[in-house]
Design brief:
The chain has one domain (4-100): HIT-like (HIT family, subunit A, 2-Layer Sandwich). It contains two helices and five strands, in the order αβββαββ. It has helices at 4-9, 55-76; strands at 18-21, 25-29, 37-43, 80-82, 95-100. It starts with a helix and ends with a strand. The structure holds zinc ion. The site of zinc ion has 5 residues, from helix 1.
């Protein structure tokens, strides 16, 4: 299991193009996008997954997810909003994908 978010993003080792950042949340453009438009929203504090996140942090993350998704709808006509869990979660740090084809 790996945690690219703590090891690369939050350590500053990998630079990303930020869309939004505050004291607890970062939204940025995916460094290796799987879709034409692909953003990621994640927590600055380590949280394993959606299943372990506290309610306050969850609300903070989804306020940002909502804002990013609204930009996608306005600019690209729609958005997928996904967080992976269990065997489908490759990086063990809570993050939410927002993408449009
Ligand atoms: Zn982490």
């Amino acid at each position: 299991m790996s945690d690219w978010y703590c090891e690369e993003l939050l350590s500053g080792r990998t630079e990303v193009e930020r869309i939004f950042e505050d004291e607890s949340v970062i939204a940025y453009w995916h460094t290796r996008p799987h879709y034409a438009h692909h953003a990621v929203v994640t927590t600055k504090a380590h949280v394993d997954s959606l299943l372990g996140v506290d309610a306050g942090t969850l609300a903070s993350v989804f306020e940002v997810v909502r804002a990013v998704a609204a930009l996608f709808v306005a600019d690209y006509g729609g958005a997928h909003v996904v967080t992976n869990l269990g065997e489908y979660q490759e990086e063990r740090h809570f993050h939410v994908h927002v993408w449009a084809e």
